[in-house]
Amino acid sequence: RKHKVVFLGTPEAGVAESGVSVAYTVLACDAGPVLAQQRVPVEPGVTAPELLERLFALGTALLLQRLPDVFGGRGQQLAAPQLTREESMLDFASGSAPELHNRVRAFAGWPGTSGRFLLVDEASGAQEPIEVKIVRTRAPGPRGSPGASSPAPSGSAAPAPSSGEAAPGEAAAAAVADGAAAAAGAREVLFSGDAMLVPCAGGTALEVLQVQPPTKKAMAARDFKNGLRGKRLLLPVQEAASA
Protein backbone atom coordinates (compact mmCIF):
# COMPACT_ATOMS: atom_id res chain seq x y z
CA ARG A 1 0.00 0.00 0.00
CA LYS A 2 1.00 3.62 -0.47
CA HIS A 3 2.14 5.90 2.31
CA LYS A 4 1.36 9.49 3.15
CA VAL A 5 2.66 12.13 5.57
CA VAL A 6 0.02 13.83 7.73
CA PHE A 7 0.64 17.15 9.49
CA LEU A 8 -0.89 17.65 12.94
CA GLY A 9 -1.80 21.04 14.48
CA THR A 10 -1.69 24.58 13.06
CA PRO A 11 -0.72 28.01 14.48
CA GLU A 12 -4.32 29.20 14.05
CA ALA A 13 -5.50 26.76 16.70
CA GLY A 14 -2.97 28.22 19.14
CA VAL A 15 -1.42 24.83 19.80
CA ALA A 16 1.92 24.60 21.56
CA GLU A 17 2.82 21.40 19.77
CA SER A 18 2.49 20.03 16.25
CA GLY A 19 3.93 17.06 14.41
CA VAL A 20 3.83 14.64 11.52
CA SER A 21 2.57 11.09 11.02
CA VAL A 22 3.59 8.60 8.35
CA ALA A 23 0.56 6.43 7.62
CA TYR A 24 -0.52 3.79 5.16
CA THR A 25 -2.98 5.01 2.52
CA VAL A 26 -6.23 3.04 2.26
CA LEU A 27 -9.56 3.70 0.53
CA ALA A 28 -11.16 5.31 3.60
CA CYS A 29 -9.97 8.82 4.44
CA ASP A 30 -7.39 8.94 7.28
CA ALA A 31 -8.12 5.32 8.18
CA GLY A 32 -4.76 3.69 7.47
CA PRO A 33 -2.52 2.47 10.30
CA VAL A 34 0.16 4.91 11.47
CA LEU A 35 3.72 3.74 10.83
CA ALA A 36 5.55 6.56 12.61
CA GLN A 37 4.82 9.83 14.37
CA GLN A 38 6.95 12.66 15.71
CA ARG A 39 5.97 15.78 17.66
CA VAL A 40 7.61 19.20 17.52
CA PRO A 41 7.09 22.36 19.61
CA VAL A 42 5.38 25.33 17.94
CA GLU A 43 7.18 28.56 18.78
CA PRO A 44 4.92 31.54 19.57
CA GLY A 45 6.16 33.61 16.62
CA VAL A 46 6.29 30.94 13.92
CA THR A 47 4.14 31.42 10.81
CA ALA A 48 2.21 28.72 8.94
CA PRO A 49 4.62 28.65 5.93
CA GLU A 50 7.61 28.37 8.25
CA LEU A 51 6.01 25.56 10.24
CA LEU A 52 4.90 23.76 7.07
CA GLU A 53 8.42 23.85 5.63
CA ARG A 54 9.81 22.42 8.84
CA LEU A 55 7.17 19.68 8.95
CA PHE A 56 7.74 18.75 5.31
CA ALA A 57 11.44 18.22 6.04
CA LEU A 58 10.67 16.27 9.19
CA GLY A 59 8.05 14.13 7.45
CA THR A 60 10.37 13.32 4.56
CA ALA A 61 13.15 12.26 6.92
CA LEU A 62 10.72 10.18 8.98
CA LEU A 63 9.39 8.42 5.87
CA LEU A 64 12.91 7.61 4.61
CA GLN A 65 13.80 6.34 8.08
CA ARG A 66 10.90 3.87 8.04
CA LEU A 67 11.16 2.67 4.44
CA PRO A 68 13.64 -0.14 5.28
CA ASP A 69 11.00 -1.59 7.64
CA VAL A 70 8.42 -1.41 4.86
CA PHE A 71 10.70 -3.02 2.27
CA GLY A 72 11.68 -5.67 4.80
CA GLY A 73 8.03 -6.61 5.40
CA ARG A 74 7.97 -5.31 8.98
CA GLY A 75 5.87 -2.19 8.33
CA GLN A 76 2.46 -3.71 9.02
CA GLN A 77 3.61 -5.24 12.29
CA LEU A 78 5.12 -1.95 13.48
CA ALA A 79 2.21 0.26 12.40
CA ALA A 80 -0.36 1.32 14.99
CA PRO A 81 -4.03 1.14 13.96
CA GLN A 82 -6.17 4.27 13.87
CA LEU A 83 -8.35 5.08 16.84
CA THR A 84 -11.67 3.27 16.94
CA ARG A 85 -15.05 4.71 17.83
CA GLU A 86 -15.05 2.89 21.17
CA GLU A 87 -11.72 4.45 22.12
CA SER A 88 -13.29 7.90 21.76
CA MET A 89 -16.10 6.94 24.17
CA LEU A 90 -15.49 8.18 27.71
CA ASP A 91 -15.70 5.45 30.35
CA PHE A 92 -16.84 7.26 33.49
CA ALA A 93 -16.78 4.03 35.50
CA SER A 94 -13.07 3.33 35.16
CA GLY A 95 -11.59 6.74 34.38
CA SER A 96 -11.04 9.52 36.89
CA ALA A 97 -11.96 13.12 36.06
CA PRO A 98 -8.33 14.17 35.38
CA GLU A 99 -7.80 11.18 33.09
CA LEU A 100 -10.96 11.84 31.12
CA HIS A 101 -10.22 15.57 30.89
CA ASN A 102 -6.87 14.73 29.31
CA ARG A 103 -8.58 12.36 26.87
CA VAL A 104 -10.96 15.12 25.80
CA ARG A 105 -7.97 17.39 25.21
CA ALA A 106 -6.07 14.73 23.28
CA PHE A 107 -9.01 13.77 21.05
CA ALA A 108 -10.25 17.35 20.46
CA GLY A 109 -11.27 17.99 16.87
CA TRP A 110 -10.76 14.40 15.71
CA PRO A 111 -11.98 11.85 16.59
CA GLY A 112 -13.60 13.76 19.45
CA THR A 113 -15.03 12.22 22.62
CA SER A 114 -18.54 11.18 23.61
CA GLY A 115 -20.40 9.88 26.64
CA ARG A 116 -23.41 7.59 27.06
CA PHE A 117 -26.22 8.81 29.28
CA LEU A 118 -29.88 8.16 30.08
CA LEU A 119 -32.59 10.80 29.74
CA VAL A 120 -35.29 10.17 32.34
CA ASP A 121 -38.69 11.83 32.10
CA GLU A 122 -39.52 13.14 35.58
CA ALA A 123 -43.27 12.71 35.04
CA SER A 124 -43.44 9.22 33.56
CA GLY A 125 -40.06 7.79 34.56
CA ALA A 126 -39.46 6.67 30.97
CA GLN A 127 -35.79 6.28 30.09
CA GLU A 128 -34.12 7.04 26.78
CA PRO A 129 -30.45 6.32 26.00
CA ILE A 130 -28.57 9.27 24.55
CA GLU A 131 -25.02 9.71 23.28
CA VAL A 132 -23.60 13.20 23.78
CA LYS A 133 -20.35 14.54 22.37
CA ILE A 134 -18.13 16.02 25.06
CA VAL A 135 -16.50 19.02 23.39
CA ARG A 136 -14.82 20.91 26.20
CA THR A 137 -14.05 20.14 29.83
CA ARG A 138 -12.26 21.69 32.77
CA ALA A 139 -9.59 19.99 34.81
CA PRO A 140 -10.78 19.40 38.38
CA GLY A 141 -8.82 21.11 41.10
CA PRO A 142 -8.96 21.76 44.85
CA ARG A 143 -11.96 23.71 46.05
CA GLY A 144 -11.60 27.36 45.12
CA SER A 145 -8.63 26.79 42.81
CA PRO A 146 -8.87 27.54 39.08
CA GLY A 147 -8.93 24.59 36.71
CA ALA A 148 -7.48 24.41 33.22
CA SER A 149 -9.97 24.02 30.39
CA SER A 150 -9.57 21.73 27.45
CA PRO A 151 -9.20 23.77 24.25
CA ALA A 152 -12.36 24.64 22.37
CA PRO A 153 -12.34 23.66 18.67
CA SER A 154 -11.35 26.40 16.25
CA GLY A 155 -14.26 28.73 15.54
CA SER A 156 -16.26 27.88 18.67
CA ALA A 157 -16.68 30.21 21.59
CA ALA A 158 -15.76 28.97 25.05
CA PRO A 159 -18.44 29.60 27.71
CA ALA A 160 -17.36 32.07 30.37
CA PRO A 161 -18.61 31.92 33.96
CA SER A 162 -20.98 34.69 35.03
CA SER A 163 -20.45 36.80 38.10
CA GLY A 164 -21.54 35.12 41.30
CA GLU A 165 -21.01 31.58 39.96
CA ALA A 166 -18.64 29.01 41.35
CA ALA A 167 -15.00 29.43 40.45
CA PRO A 168 -13.48 26.89 38.04
CA GLY A 169 -12.86 23.62 39.85
CA GLU A 170 -14.95 24.65 42.85
CA ALA A 171 -18.30 23.31 41.69
CA ALA A 172 -17.11 19.75 41.08
CA ALA A 173 -15.06 19.64 44.27
CA ALA A 174 -18.02 20.89 46.27
CA ALA A 175 -20.40 18.36 44.67
CA VAL A 176 -18.13 15.45 45.48
CA ALA A 177 -17.27 16.70 48.97
CA ASP A 178 -20.92 17.25 49.85
CA GLY A 179 -21.89 13.77 48.67
CA ALA A 180 -24.28 15.05 46.03
CA ALA A 181 -23.45 12.21 43.67
CA ALA A 182 -23.78 9.65 46.43
CA ALA A 183 -27.18 11.04 47.41
CA ALA A 184 -28.36 10.39 43.87
CA GLY A 185 -27.03 6.83 43.92
CA ALA A 186 -23.86 7.95 42.10
CA ARG A 187 -25.94 8.03 38.95
CA GLU A 188 -27.32 11.52 38.41
CA VAL A 189 -25.43 14.07 36.36
CA LEU A 190 -25.57 17.40 38.16
CA PHE A 191 -25.37 20.96 36.88
CA SER A 192 -23.68 23.81 38.72
CA GLY A 193 -22.81 27.24 37.35
CA ASP A 194 -21.37 26.85 33.87
CA ALA A 195 -20.58 23.13 34.22
CA MET A 196 -22.22 19.74 33.87
CA LEU A 197 -20.79 17.51 36.60
CA VAL A 198 -20.39 13.87 35.59
CA PRO A 199 -19.51 11.37 38.38
CA CYS A 200 -16.28 9.51 37.56
CA ALA A 201 -14.10 6.85 39.12
CA GLY A 202 -12.42 7.57 42.42
CA GLY A 203 -15.16 9.88 43.67
CA THR A 204 -14.22 12.59 41.17
CA ALA A 205 -16.49 14.62 38.89
CA LEU A 206 -15.68 15.74 35.37
CA GLU A 207 -16.65 19.36 34.71
CA VAL A 208 -18.10 19.48 31.20
CA LEU A 209 -18.37 23.00 29.78
CA GLN A 210 -19.47 22.35 26.20
CA VAL A 211 -21.42 19.48 24.64
CA GLN A 212 -23.02 18.53 21.35
CA PRO A 213 -26.32 16.61 21.62
CA PRO A 214 -27.43 14.40 18.71
CA THR A 215 -28.44 16.33 15.56
CA LYS A 216 -27.57 19.67 17.20
CA LYS A 217 -24.64 22.10 17.21
CA ALA A 218 -22.14 22.37 20.03
CA MET A 219 -23.52 24.36 22.95
CA ALA A 220 -22.65 25.45 26.46
CA ALA A 221 -23.51 22.99 29.22
CA ARG A 222 -25.97 25.44 30.76
CA ASP A 223 -27.86 25.69 27.45
CA PHE A 224 -27.98 21.90 27.26
CA LYS A 225 -29.47 21.84 30.76
CA ASN A 226 -32.14 24.37 29.76
CA GLY A 227 -33.14 22.13 26.87
CA LEU A 228 -33.75 19.06 29.04
CA ARG A 229 -37.27 20.34 29.90
CA GLY A 230 -38.46 18.16 32.72
CA LYS A 231 -35.90 15.42 32.20
CA ARG A 232 -32.97 14.31 34.29
CA LEU A 233 -29.65 13.06 33.00
CA LEU A 234 -28.24 9.86 34.49
CA LEU A 235 -25.28 7.61 33.90
CA PRO A 236 -26.07 4.11 32.60
CA VAL A 237 -26.23 1.58 35.43
CA GLN A 238 -23.06 -0.26 34.39
CA GLU A 239 -21.08 2.98 34.54
CA ALA A 240 -22.73 4.35 37.67
CA ALA A 241 -21.97 1.16 39.63
CA SER A 242 -18.22 1.81 39.59
CA ALA A 243 -18.25 5.63 39.61
UniProtKB/TrEMBL annotation:
Keywords: Protein biosynthesis, Transferase
Region described as Disordered: spans on this chain: 135-166
InterPro entries xrefs: Formyl_trans_C (IPR005793), Formyl_trans_C_sf (IPR037022), Formyl_transf_N_sf (IPR036477), Formyl_transferase-like_C_sf (IPR011034), Met-tRNA-FMT_C (IPR044135)
GO molecular function, one term: methionyl-tRNA formyltransferase activity
Residue ranges annotated for the Formyl transferase C-terminal domain, each copy included: 189-228
GO cellular component, one term: mitochondrion
KW Phosphoprotein (keyword) present: no
Annotated Low complexity bias: 139-166
A Pfam family that the UniProt record links to this protein: Formyl_trans_C
Domain of life where this protein originates: Eukaryota
PANTHER family per UniProt: METHIONYL-TRNA FORMYLTRANSFERASE, METHIONYL-TRNA FORMYLTRANSFERASE, MITOCHONDRIAL
Protein name (record): Methionyl-tRNA formyltransferase
